[in-house]
Amino acid sequence: MREEHLPPKEAARKAMRQITGAIVAITLVLAAVFIPSALQTGSTGVIYRQFALTLSISMVFSAFLAMSFSPALCASLMHPKRLDNALFRGFNRLFESTRAAYVRRVFHSVTHLPRWMTAFAVVVALGLFVLAKLPGSFVPEEDQGDIMASIQLPPGASLQRTEATLHRFYELMIKNPAVHDVFQVAGSGFAGTAESAGRAFIHLVPWSQRKQTAFQVIRWGNSQVKKQIHNASVFLVNKPTIQGLGQFGGFDFYLEDRAGLGRPALNSAVRTLLGKARKDPELYDVRV
């Protein structure tokens, strides 16, 4: 209205002719990104489905409003008038100078395409390099400053034996300078309640005050309990990254005898699988 001296209705029509294509394109691009996320199955689909559908539906509504109600309101409410406010005039000058600089940069990019395509290729290569360094698991494990331990004695073991084993475990773990405190529960394990079961929660000192990560403490602890605690099955694990998505960090693997070969064949397959998994440098603390 100010630059071309058009009435409000004609100005709204001309503006919509210029930006309708951009609105539709942006909506379709974002929908193409988020809608496939809503179609995923399994745990990934459960986590992303509501997020993807909410964004997709809100984008469709936003595009509809931008192409229907917004131009009607602009034609009805906006009127040409002189800007006497110094703040608005300063903003307009800044906006126009920014727009002109952007147009010049785009024109320069188009007229010097090989140079900018080379820069784009470098950015893509850098992105692929960083992507290769990032954890590739579904929910990467994190050092949250707390780890857990499961203690299981032979069936029928008394609560006193369980408490004695927990006390030995406490004395072992508290020697590590990265461990701040150990909270123990006797008579209750992660698999259920029993006098022969126990669990422990190890709280580590703040990250800035320790040299070991939680994963290093877990490896150290598992190696120590194998050497010093022989009357119980004890293993340390990391906390799950997302609370409620499993009891421990890492992942579980289920081996099924679908061919009906029997227990001896299944046990042999389990031993073979464990042997190969323990040799894999990307895995640690593989156990049944």
Structural write-up:
The protein is of the alpha+beta class. The protein has 3 domains: 8-81; 146-248, 2-Layer Sandwich (Alpha-Beta Plaits); 253-288. 56% of the residues lie in helices and 13% in strands. It has 8 helices and 4 strands. A hairpin with a 2-residue loop joins strand 2 (179-189) and strand 3. The longest helix is centred in the N-terminal third of the chain and has 31 residues, at 8-38. The protein is elongated, with a radius of gyration of 31 Å. The model has no long low-confidence stretch (mean pLDDT 85).
What is the helical fraction, as a range of percent? 55-70%
Count of helices?
A: 8
CATH class of the largest domain: Alpha Beta
Structural class, by secondary structure, is: alpha+beta
Widest sheet, order of strands: 2-3-1-4
Spans where pLDDT lies below 50 across 5 or more residues: none
Main sheet record: 4 strands, antiparallel
Mean pLDDT, to the nearest integer, reads 85
Shape: elongated
Number of domains: 3
CATH topology of the largest domain, by name, is Alpha-Beta Plaits
Short description:
With 288 residues, the protein is α+β, with helices and mostly antiparallel strands. Helices cover 56% and strands 13% of the residues.
